[in-house]
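[step 3/7] inverse_fold.run input=structure_tokens len=203
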């Protein structure tokens, strides 16, 4: 029975596999997606918007050590790797295989790492990036902990975010303890890129 179910699951995943060409300025990225396989197995609009934003503002990431949280299909990490050879593309579960394939396909140097937000630090980074990662309220505290564990005072956190009232109410107040907004870019009526910097707490 289990075998039958996993066969059906595999067939369903195979059916939905598709490639998209994402054009950002002078670059074409070929991106594999498997919509329906997992939440991050398709490219979210926030991922596309953050990729465009970083491609057009490379001074934010040039030569920096970069950690992407909740990378999904990996496009943001792929773009970061055009400007830095120290990029970790992290997520958890089956999306990692898709990210790995996309990095290989685009001849990219980002390093794929399985990392859940409740886990210990994987390093201290100059920049942490994330797109469309603020949506489940049970993940807000782990996400905040992951930001703290992998940063130092001065680390920049670049988040592309789609407006959702509850995350506005519950997530951003958490961040305020240790991060200040250095810049807010409105991308569309409902999406933003926020640039935060980790600051020392006042004692
Ligand atoms: C909405 S998807 C966005 C994917 C990608 N950033 C994009 O914009 O296309 C959210 C991603 O966060 C990851 N994620 C959610 N909770 C997580 C956790 N606790 N630890 C690690 N990754 C997590 C999911 O696996 C998923 O790939």
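[step 3/7] decode complete -> sequence:
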């Amino acid at each position: 029975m289990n075998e039958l179910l996993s066969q059906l699951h595999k067939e369903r995943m195979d059916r939905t596999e598709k490639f998209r060409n994402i054009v950002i300025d002078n670059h074409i990225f070929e991106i594999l997606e498997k919509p329906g396989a997992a939440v991050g197995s398709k490219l979210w609009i926030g991922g596309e918007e953050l990729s465009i934003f970083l491609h057009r503002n490379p001074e934010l990431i040039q030569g920096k050590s970069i950690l992407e949280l909740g990378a999904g299909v990996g496009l943001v990490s792929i773009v970061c790797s055009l400007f830095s050879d120290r990029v970790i593309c992290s997520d958890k579960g089956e999306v990692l295989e898709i990210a790995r394939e996309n990095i290989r396909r685009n001849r990219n140097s980002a390093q794929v790492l399985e990392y859940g937000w409740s886990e210990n630090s994987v390093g201290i980074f100059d920049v942490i990036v994330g797109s469309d990662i603020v949506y489940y309220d049970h993940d807000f505290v782990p996400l905040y902990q992951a930001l703290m564990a992998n940063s130092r005072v001065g680390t920049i956190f670049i988040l592309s975010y789609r407006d959702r009232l509850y995350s506005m109410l519950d997530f951003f107040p958490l961040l305020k303890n240790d991060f200040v907004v250095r810049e807010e870019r409105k991308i569309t009526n409902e999406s933003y890129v926020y640039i935060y910097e980790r600051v020392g707490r006042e004692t």
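[step 4/7] annotate
The mean pLDDT is 91.
Residues 39-40, 43-44, 46-47, 70-73, 91-92, 95, 116-117, 131-133, 139, 142 surround S-adenosylmethionine (CB under 6 Å).
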